Amino acid sequence: MASSSPVRHAWRVLLGLLLVTAALFGVNAVGVHVVKESSWAPELALDLQGGTQIVLSAVTEENANPTQEQLDQAVQIIRQRVDAAGVAEADITTEGGRNIVVQLPGVVDEETRARIEASAQMELRAVIAASAGTNQFMGEDGQPTPYPSPDPTLNAIPTPEPTDGSDLAWVTDKLEAEFFAYDCANPENNPSQAPASQPLITCDTSGTVKYILGPAELDGSSIDDAVAGRDPNSGAWTVQLTFDAEGRETFGEISQRLYGATEPLNQFAFVLDGAVISAPRMQAVILTGNPSISGSFTQESAQLLADQLRYGALPLSFTVESTNTISATLGSQQLQIGLIAGLIGLALVALYSLLSYRTLGVVIIASLAVMAVLTYILIAILAWRIGFRLSLAGVAGLIVAIGFCADSFIVYFERIRDEMRDGKGITTAVEDGWARAKRTIYISKSINVLAAVVLYVLADSTVKGFAFTLGLTTILDVFIFIVFTHPVMQLLARTKFFGQGHPLSGMDPAALGAVYHTRTEYRTVQAGTAGKSAKAARSRREAERRQTIAERKRAEALATNPDSASGKEGDA
């Protein structure tokens, strides 16, 4: 009965692994057949698949060239926008002293395109007036009537100097005429070039509402963070903002001014690329610097707004110079070369395992096969859930993982063999070898994971794929070591082939140099085996060395406690 508990435990663990694997395939099946956003094949990155190229050109006063520092900062913020949805393997570089080239794998969806193209400085302005998005107003007959274009020579009637961003004194007769004549559908309008110190006529991103906005009172650099989430009371999607110290003070003063005002003077607009992306009403005095924006948001629209607010503070304004489809830089040929290299590495590991461990090497090969299946399905799921795409660097990470994974099994098997050389039976050696080997493996793998995390955080985007796959496979290595390799060894140790040390099992005590049947019953060292083969000679020398060490330890134990070595130790 002593051995039944480990056997039951091993079968339960293996059943759990089977259920986890089935669950992962089930999750991806939902993504493929129900949500229709996943695939059974991993998504490829830009270097293997090709994709979309967007060229942004910097807009500066008097067409002056921007500084390299400004371009580098813009690249960093655009990269944050692109990566907001996950690991996208994007390539973002500067070109020609004023352009930023964004290359994305595959077909770019509209939300990602909006994140990239919304590249002007973020401005926060108070709403002074709001109306329909066309240049029409209701006439006396109740029908829409075009408002006459403003007279360029029209001078505003002198008014008192405005006192704040919501002051109606900003609306001169000329500005009012321009507002009524302003058509949101007119592509010639370019409100993004309006000075921050002057009022602005613009529209929302849908073109249905146009506004007169006061001067900019805050910019995007004052926003430390913006997070989409559900309101704990209503369950509706909201966007929670966090201002820095200066922004908190300024926004607190604005909220005191706007709260309780009549519409639309109680609204505060977030302006990006010259368009209003949100104009919420001020419903409280907020002095903490943590306002929230509520409305008829979906999860996607709330996340998009949060990304725009969080990553909207570019040091420059940009226009979209061109959008093109690009071909793969490496393509299927390089992918095939990478896969062939991986198969060669796998074959060499399998050959080494069989030569060194005989039939025991099959356990290593089976463990690698299980790891390959789990890695494949996880990459497919991650492509759906976080946008992960497999680049050539990622393929290299998977190839390196083959050696790292085999290393874990070798440490374990060598520990088992050492326990057998010390006189333990196979079942006891498996358990004691596991107890000692797992500490070494945990330490080794934790260092590998730490290196992968540091590399992912600090390295260029072209190397992130390598770090990601390396970290993922290292974690899977430990998982398979626990839920597959050790349970399988527990079961194999209780079979006749392995348990009795068949010469082809890789667990033959004589071949390993073991010197006893039990801890107190020594084997007879055959001197004549030296001439049979070099391997037999090495086994004999190892046995002699270990017998001498074991006899000395036993003599010391007997001198200390004569009863300590009177019994015999068998298998557990």
Which descriptors apply to this entry?
572 residues, alpha+beta, Multidrug efflux transporter AcrB transmembrane fold, Alpha-Beta Plaits, Gyrase A, domain 2, 5-stranded antiparallel beta sheet, 4-stranded antiparallel beta sheet, 15 helices, 16 strands, 17% strand, elongated, disordered C terminus
Query: Percent range for helical residues?
Result: 40-55%
Q: Measured on Cα atoms, how large is the radius of gyration?
A: 35 Å
Number of domains: 4
CATH superfamily of the largest domain: Multidrug efflux transporter AcrB transmembrane domain
- Global morphology: elongated
CATH topology of the largest domain: Multidrug efflux transporter AcrB transmembrane fold
Put simply, the count of helices is 15
- What is the C-level CATH assignment of the largest domain? Mainly Alpha
Distance between the termini: 10 Å
Instruction: Point out poorly predicted stretches.
Output: 135-157, 516-520, 522-532, 564-572
Characterize the structure shown.
By secondary structure, the protein is α+β, with helices and mostly antiparallel strands. Helix content is 48%, strand content 17%. The protein is built from 15 helices and 16 strands. It has helices at 4-34, 46-49, 68-83, 110-117, 173-181, 245-258, 299-310, 331-357, 361-385, 392-421, 426-458, 461-492, 496-499, 509-512, 534-560; strands at 51-59, 91-95, 99-105, 122-132, 136-138, 144-146, 200-203, 209-219, 223-230, 237-243, 268-272, 275-278, 292-294, 317-326, 516-518, 521-522. A five-stranded antiparallel beta sheet has the order 7-8-4-11-12. Helix 8 (331-357) runs antiparallel to helix 9. The radius of gyration is 35 Å and the shape is elongated. The relative contact order is 0.12. Residues 135-157, 516-520, 522-532 and 564-572 have low confidence and may be disordered.
